[in-house]
């Protein structure tokens, strides 16, 4: 006896074609931070295909991890930055980034 088929015969597995500007990148919203308007877009794990560096914690965002893309409204889209969601939400609670020497303790 052969194993049961989960799909009807003749069924093709194809990926839907997304229209330009569709739901691939999520919805944009506008937030005010430090007196500027910021465009904020949620990126799902399926759309995150490259490595990025989070400006909030200076750690890498690997591919496949959901995150936030934000840029100032008055700047071009090329100046957008990719943030961890938690880092974007905590941006007001963070202090200025302190540059330490290599021999300084990390705490």
UniProtKB/TrEMBL annotation:
Basic residues composition-biased segments: 1-15
Region described as Disordered: 1-25
Highest taxon of source: Bacteria
The protein's name in its UniProt record: ATP/GTP-binding protein
Species of provenance: Streptomyces meridianus
């Amino acid at each position: 006896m052969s194993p049961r088929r989960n799909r009807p015969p003749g069924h093709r597995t194809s990926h839907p074609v997304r229209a330009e500007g569709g739901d691939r990148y999520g919805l944009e919203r506008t937030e005010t931070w430090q007196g500027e308007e910021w465009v904020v877009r949620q990126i799902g794990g399926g759309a995150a295909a490259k490595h990025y560096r989070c400006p909030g914690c200076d750690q890498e965002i690997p591919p496949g991890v959901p995150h936030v893309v934000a840029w100032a409204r008055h700047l071009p889209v090329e100046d957008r930055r990719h943030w961890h969601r938690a880092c974007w939400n905590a941006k007001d609670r963070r202090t200025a980034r302190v540059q330490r020497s290599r021999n300084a303790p990390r705490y």
